């Protein structure tokens, strides 16, 4: 086995300004070294630049040149001689996304401690968002995602933060399919309860809905029971319900941003096609599947046409949409909040419980409990700055961040 090549690690710190990086590389270029690795970050205009290069025979002479260059730049520099590349980056790699509102130092300390306990190493940390939540992504190596996920999920619950662990793979960078529940996920509230208000049955329908979402009642039975209470409601009430629907905060941003990247979207609902088809058309969602209310002579009959889209039906729809799009299940992201979403969440490569019931949070790959649907973009490696830049390019204005959050 050949010896690992001798290397130099150059670490430069100080006030950032134009020309710093080029000056250091000019000094390195004169020695004819090869660049092996680079990391650079800027925090509040303070630069930290790390450069790993092959070590020349007369490495001390190069060190002196680098130190003189740093002095001229009024920067601090360290030059360390060693061997090999960044060994910690071999083996299993994962992306860990942490979301907090606020994100406390104690929570970061706890998560970093659990990562260390697993034998993994944090190779890189970057901020994905600073408002309305703080989102941080860790690039971790040395432990499989399946080992990290339960360990970190338990710690996230203790710290009151959201956390997702995803294996580093090509799927994270390719076109993916997003499959979403509708009621209390894509939109706020439950459509069936809004319709029931027109029949004076809102309280009774809400009671049955809650029991079904907790998994205490068979979904199909509970749905037929609730729909029966809608008999006699004029079909025109569906237009009023649609006009009153409020999307989850960030829903349009999430769909708009991911569509630009070529993602495909589907909504799968235990609700009704009379609403979901219009939502899909409004948001530019590619696929929609839901139950169809029977309407006769302009009035709801209290019955459903065809097979019920229940817990199993949602998973079936997810697989069919994935086949139509031509992506593997590992490239599917499912988002839901209720017990009838569990099969769908388990079928996807990444199942996200969004402001979900406890039984769903416990079963999903990860959970997002902040009231912003576009926070899911951070799990996909898309930063708030990238979202705003893309919007600005087409004239969409983003509100200014809260005072005190500017750099």
UniProtKB/TrEMBL annotation:
Gene3D superfamilies hit by this protein: 3.30.70.260, HAD superfamily/HAD-like (3.40.50.1000)
Cofactor section: Mg(2+)
Keyword Metal-binding tagged: yes
EC number: 3.1.3.3
Pfam families in UniProt: ACT_6 (PF13740), ACT_PSP_2 (PF21086), HAD (PF12710)
Keyword 4Fe-4S carried by entry: no
The family this protein is said to belong to: Belongs to the HAD-like hydrolase superfamily. SerB family.
Name used for this protein in its record: phosphoserine phosphatase
Organism encoding this protein: Nocardioides zhouii
